């Protein structure tokens, strides 16, 4: 049994982590923590999230001293704000913990990126160098050796799972950037009160056009430019990405199918559609990324769907945990 | 043309007031105001509420000195917090304005009520005495003479329109209190950011059981005790109230139908159902209260539906305006 | 391992049964079946319900001859229309199968009830006599011996779990009937296409006032009259029941709390709220019924929430299975 | 006063037509009609759509003989299935009526198009030649002379309003097709019962990839190829189109702004955003198409939002009526 601490357990991703880890046969949740200033400190997780009543009734402990906890646990999950993860992760890492960070603090090995997109100067270049990007289907070998796994963002997970097989197989026309239109449920904005995410204000709309922080994350790890337009959708959970690409002349539908088959036929948490494309309802509450596509002439449309809180955050973090410690990849997930 | 000021114009009720008054042939919107501290001060109403772009593009002016405005307008609508209305209304009234207050500040002529349910000590007993409760279908004559109209709460409007014909006709068994179960859309909680009303948190649930401030308002104006249980529903607008009553022995379905007919056959904004009961969709976006009922033995169920922001707030305020100034009752409303 | 057949597997309750039984360690799904005329016959369950892709990919076999299957399975779940269950159950029972019927065909031991509320004449009075009503928390001993379990309706489950402790403890005033206002998600109407349940038509509304077939089911098993008003809510899943009761003079809040504690402190799938009342979001997707209450004077309001497809149908059926065969009561459910 | 007949009045677009024409000062609704076989024949419109109770209580008359009505009315609105419009329109046209057809029956002057995309052989090439495509902002002069106006589809309206100023101004790179990703509310599928549009089945998903009938309609009238991917969204009304384009080298943001300004500065029902892009909530229930855009380098993203039933159908039909008869363009619309 590995002892684990979940920091930021009161948020939407934290709740999902608690649920998975509570039923994981090799994990013991030593404690749930929130920042010392959080108004949720001292409450039970199940007071905030009544679905967990009788399942995970642990208290949310205020985290004032990371070192104190670092000695008691083997594994730390950080479902915290980017700056908080940036500060906390090294403390746990120095104590020897394995850290799965769900924030953006260690995803891109480029200090300037943090200044521009996250508004802080990165202080831990050494850990940036060592961090492994946790796109589970593509980083299996590196995750097995990692001490710090930077779990990808929700949009980047869907976008890269849709595009990476095509990029790797060299099927895309270089002159025309893939167009990623993605729509996310409101939970992607977190649990903090905001007029933007209040019930009466939400409606379908694009945001962050040409300047969303997930754009450079996608480009950095995909290795090719894209146009990425995120949208807020009027549903609580899930992401659907519609990706429009130009194929190289001569590339056939069969070539595309093979590229996806080769990439994912042995990956239990990517489900390929042989015909048709996925709908959001197929993945909500589940740890899968579903992918389908259609070809007409040189035009290719790939559709990827996932639960933004699961494959886009918490279940991918647990998937990385399973890979890291040699457990079956889907353990506790399905 | 009457000049009018809408205070609290940035909230959901304020927007509806602006829409109605903008198209009202006898009204001129002199200005829209918000509290001087509001972050919305200085913005256009249509920046906050894009549906009004090109329709009502007026700025939201910070209200620092009521007296300054009082001289410029004939009519004031207060879509403000209870304490704010309590403080502002007398300033406009002293200057001779006719005031329609959508808050709870002048609805119940009982000082203790404000301490208990609104958390402030009422300072304007004289205006409490003079205020007319604006339940339009029942207060027509008084509204015609009023300088201060206290527009009823959203739940009290639906509840009283459902019950008052029965109470007035003496049809209800006194030993058994009517049970009002009502469900309101999220806009009833206002536009302020709150975790409770955030998109991912809302689901059907009762609240304020036995202690909602609309309970004593209903009882005070209905003149009979009731059990009132409000619920938050997962929709933006509307209230549906299901009222279960015990009839006096011998009262027939026909008696009930007559009571409703007598009360409302000449009221253009109450729609009686001859068969069946209303659904919420019939009233959303419209200024009506729809009422239907069913009888079995001594048991009576009345269902009333309205848009909480319209008949439960803004359209009723404009209906009162129309009555007060002798305009057709539905002018600009349908 | 017990072999099981799920009939009516393509509907919403059937899908949930398939999900639970697929992960149940002592159950083997021998086959999924639908009626021979169903347009879904021959498809994969996961074609209709993509969330099950890769999890339950079994085909939906057309059921033409029950006897053929009866010999191959130990346990049958009927998630079928009432008339279909009425006809099928005896065939499986005669062959020795244990049958869990989710329809209304065997819930009330009164032939006239079926003519009036279900529109058919019941032909199997012998099985009506032997059927055990599967309200799991209250019928534990009988379920252990049952060959035919009539799993309760969704509204009756919530209503009875809310009221039965009070009735059994004799706390309710006999002169005033409890008022049950309950709101159900749209899935309660099944998966068949209908204008009534189409996306653009659904809004909060009461229906079946004074004549819903779940009313006599509640009364028959509770043993006391009630007023029951069901509502359609604009959400896919869940039931919230708000029950307003009159207590006998002298009954205290503590008496009520004790009645609930005594009834449910050792029942793993009823969660009592010590303070506050449940919201729908706490139970959606979960096999619990959550119960809370409030008392003021002689007035008592009990709120019960459940997932209509789970505790109101499929999870209760599996709970009954677990009880019947001596498995842990929550096995595969949480 | 012009006498008018609305055929197909029971559907979602028909209801909106009835609402607009009922309040139009120059129009008299002579009758509402549905096909003779419709189960709605004989009912009141307000029985099906309770929001119209007391507003439009006319009966839905079965249309068996178009000629009978043709003599009594000046103007006919066809909110009917494509084949029905195809058959009916000529009958009314021959009698001298002015016809506004909301179906696809006369939108594209290419017989083969109807065989391929609508499944019938077009019999009325003469009327196809005379029909005027009712994209109101671009066809003003032709609509003024038209006897048959083919009101554009919902997706084509948003798509063309977004792209036509750019195409006309020659700003787009010809080598790269614009990518139109559009999401429509469920009402776009009509009011007929279907599992696909039932409440529990709807979730965000693409459909009709590479073969939606609105694709050739867009291409035919825009005069340039596009990639068009429609999506079903989980909301009742509205369309949001996100259009990604490549600009010609050297084209600036200012050039784009000027193209939009030139096209729409004097068009009352297109609202241009000076900064930001529209959200769906700004247009639901309103007759506008809202348009905003963003440029980065050679990449341009245009966002257009409209109510699919209004600017995408009924309000555009009334706008065409107003243009045709010389009424103010927005009469009865805002």
Automatic annotation (TrEMBL), chains A, B, C, D:
Involved pathway(s): Amino-acid biosynthesis; L-arginine biosynthesis; N(2)-acetyl-L-ornithine from L-glutamate: step 3/4
Catalytic reactions of this protein: N-acetyl-L-glutamate 5-semialdehyde + phosphate + NADP(+) = N-acetyl-L-glutamyl 5-phosphate + NADPH + H(+)
Record-level GO cellular component terms: cytoplasm
Record keywords: Amino-acid biosynthesis, Arginine biosynthesis, Cytoplasm, NADP, Oxidoreductase
Enzyme Commission (EC) number: 1.2.1.38
Example GO biological process: L-arginine biosynthetic process
Residues annotated as domain Semialdehyde dehydrogenase NAD-binding: 3-146
Keyword Cytoplasm attached: yes
GO molecular function: N-acetyl-gamma-glutamyl-phosphate reductase activity; NAD binding; NADP+ binding
Pfam families: Semialdhyde_dh, Semialdhyde_dhC_1
Entry's family note: Belongs to the NAGSA dehydrogenase family. Type 1 subfamily.
Known function: Catalyzes the NADPH-dependent reduction of N-acetyl-5-glutamyl phosphate to yield N-acetyl-L-glutamate 5-semialdehyde.
Name assigned to this protein: N-acetyl-gamma-glutamyl-phosphate reductase
UniProt lineage: Bacteria, Pseudomonadati, Pseudomonadota, Gammaproteobacteria, Enterobacterales
